[in-house]
């Protein structure tokens, strides 16, 4: 696969603060990658360095096998950052037309409007009259104006309502299907779980894990089979099974903690215990996030 981004032993210091520490990873064409981490983990700093807006203190950053500061490279990149600043006196339509004029092959205007959810009334408004949600849609449209191959979204859905957030991620899926490479940061872990093919988890300026949401959850979180009992269940026998790590009762349900949910199900059916309401919990991304950022011994 074509390598779009290469980061090799990158460090970034601000006076005495180490924002990014010996960071190395690469991203391939067409990937959808979430950068997660607590506040101060180095997410936004890393995104700004990949955009060429910050200089690394040490290490090497390449975007499309070149410096991200090169004009030809910047023309391939779109970015939606947390703050969007435009000329307040211009109407939204005028702002979009201005930004499109900066590119040789911009996205078609009508397609841009449809993809980002702007309506006719939005286009007529001056930039300083926009609501928070409208400003986010404008920021999204500016990121897509040049029809870029690589997109960065830094906390893109902050301030959006539920329907706007769904529309945004539906559009991201469309962009992915067109072969775009997409990198985003978010505090909404469910978004990362639903959308990202790969997660880079930062902590204290370092990369502490890199994998698919499924792999990270399965590796680090508890999985369980829960059910309601009818005629009594041999809890001591279940606890003694080699693939069971814990058994407990909560709100009248029996929970069997295991790394092998299929084996637990096979046992229940083989014994014909008459249990009802069987549910499987495969673990949650927030549990993995907490383990990796608070209990470093699990890494």
Describe the structure.
By secondary structure, the chain is α/β, with parallel strands linked by helices. The chain folds into two domains: 3-217, Rossmann fold (3-Layer(aba) Sandwich); 222-281, 2-Layer Sandwich (Alpha-Beta Plaits), CATH 3.30.70. Helices cover 35% and strands 29% of the residues. It has twelve helices and 13 strands. The strands form three sheets. A six-stranded mixed sheet has the order 5-6-7-3-8-9, sandwiched between helices. The chain is elongated, with a radius of gyration of 24 Å. The model is unreliable at 295-299 (pLDDT under 50).
Write the layout of secondary structure elements.
Blueprint: E1 3-14, E2 17-28, E3 32-36, H1 43-50, E4 58-63, H2 71-74, E5 77-80, H3 92-100, H4 109-116, H5 120-124, H6 132-144, E6 150-154, H7 162-177, E7 181-185, H8 189-195, E8 198-203, E9 206-211, H9 213-220, E10 223-228, H10 235-239, E11 244-250, E12 253-258, H11 261-271, E13 276-281, H12 285-294
Parallel strand pairs: 3-7, 3-8, 5-6, 6-7
Antiparallel strand pairs: 1-2, 1-4, 8-9, 10-12, 10-13, 11-12
């Amino acid at each position: 696969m074509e390598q779009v981004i290469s980061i090799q032993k990158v460090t970034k210091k601000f006076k005495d603060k180490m924002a990014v520490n010996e960071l190395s990873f690469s991203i391939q064409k067409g990937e959808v990658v979430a950068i997660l981490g607590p506040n101060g983990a180095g997410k936004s700093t890393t995104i700004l360095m990949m955009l060429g807006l910050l200089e690394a203190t040490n290490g090497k950053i390449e975007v499309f096998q070149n410096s991200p500061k090169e004009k030809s490279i910047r023309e391939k990149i779109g970015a939606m950052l947390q703050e969007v600043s435009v000329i307040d006196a211009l109407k939204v339509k005028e702002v979009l037309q201005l930004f499109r004029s900066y590119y040789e092959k911009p996205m078609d205007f009508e397609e841009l409007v449809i993809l980002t959810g702007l309506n006719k009334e939005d286009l007529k408004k001056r930039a300083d009259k926009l609501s928070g949600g409208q400003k986010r849609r404008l920021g999204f449209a500016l990121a897509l104006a040049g029809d870029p191959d690589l997109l960065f979204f830094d906390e893109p859905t902050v301030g959006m309502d539920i329907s706007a957030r769904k529309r945004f991620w539906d559009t991201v899926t469309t962009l992915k299907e067109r072969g775009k490479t997409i990198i985003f940061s978010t505090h909404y872990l469910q978004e990362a779980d639903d959308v990202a093919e790969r997660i880079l988890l930062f902590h204290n300026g370092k990369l502490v894990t890199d994998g698919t949401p499924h792999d990270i959850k399965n590796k680090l979180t508890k999985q369980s089979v829960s059910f309601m009992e009818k005629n009594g269940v041999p809890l001591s026998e279940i606890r003694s099974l080699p693939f069971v790590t814990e058994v407990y009762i909560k709100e009248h349900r029996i929970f069997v903690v295991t790394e092998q949910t299929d084996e637990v199900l096979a046992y229940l059916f083989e014994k014909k215990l008459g249990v009802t309401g069987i549910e499987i919990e495969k673990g949650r991304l927030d549990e993995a996030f907490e383990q990796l950022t608070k209990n470093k011994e699990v890494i």
